[in-house]
From TrEMBL:
Keywords: DNA-binding, Nucleus, Transcription, Transcription regulation. Gene3D superfamilies: Helix-loop-helix DNA-binding domain (4.10.280.10). Residues 74-85 have a biased composition (Basic residues). It comes from the Eukaryota. InterPro entries: bHLH_dom, E-box_TF_Regulators, HLH_DNA-bd_sf. This is Si:dkey-34f9.3. Residues 90-142 form the BHLH domain.
DNA sequence: TAGGCCATCTGGTCCT
DNA sequence: AGGACCAGATGGCCTA
């Protein structure tokens, strides 16, 4: 069997599987967290069609030309890219797909994490770095509350009045005290 | 328009 | 050897 054809078949399978998995890339997806941002749920096929790389004018298998549906088009595109390619390019293309898949899974995890840190409904989407910093600060605050043994609400009240003792609280970035108020509301709602 | 954020590609390194 | 992971480079989009 032609190695290129075999490789293409494997890629087809991979891309198709990935399309089916859209929105379920993360091992945390069982949390049922819905992303508000559709771009975070791009399929690999979408990404594939956006890829500017490896556009080489090559022959297209005539047996694929008549395929009417999207899968046929995708196959044609892949066929164009993969046939008559240097083996290195084929390997590189496969590596790019794996890398995109890996990044998607990371982004999916970020989406899950965003769902677990307190933000305002009207607040703009947290960046990745803000998500990480806020998560760290949130965990630190929860730990402080646990260690203090105080009532969570009164602890947050105390923080509002006197400021924080712990320097990690300096990381409450973008919204400052407003975010603390939101935390307070969150704690009241969740711990009441 | 500059800066921030992001997706993607790429080559290097490490691991299995 | 092949895949996973990582970091640098690049270009697009958006916002102040």
């Amino acid at each position: 069997m032609d190695p290129n054809f075999q490789f293409q078949s494997q890629l087809d399978t991979l891309l198709f599987d990935c399309s089916a998995m859209t929105g379920q890339m993360s091992p945390w997806s069982s949390f049922g967290c819905q992303s508000v941002f559709p771009e975070a749920q791009l399929t690999f096929t979408d990404l594939d069609s956006q890829s500017p790389q490896l556009e080489v004018g090559a022959e297209v298998d005539s047996s694929l030309v008549d395929e009417p549906h999207e899968l046929g088009k995708r196959r044609q595109q892949q066929q164009r890219r993969l046939t008559s390619h240097h083996p290195y390019k084929v390997q590189r293309y496969a590596a790019n797909i794996r890398e995109r898949k890996r990044m998607l899974s990371i982004n999916s995890a970020f989406e899950e994490l965003r769902c677990h840190v307190p933000t305002f409904p009207y607040e703009k989407r947290l960046s990745k770095i803000d998500t990480l910093r806020l998560a760290i600060a949130y965990i630190a605050l929860l730990r402080e509350i646990l260690m203090s043994g105080c009532d969570p609400k009164s602890y947050v009240d105390e923080c509002m009045k006197n400021g924080y003792k712990n320097q990690t609280n300096a990381i409450w970035n973008t919204s400052g005290k407003m975010r603390v108020k939101h935390m307070q509301a969150t704690l009241e709602g969740k711990l009441a």
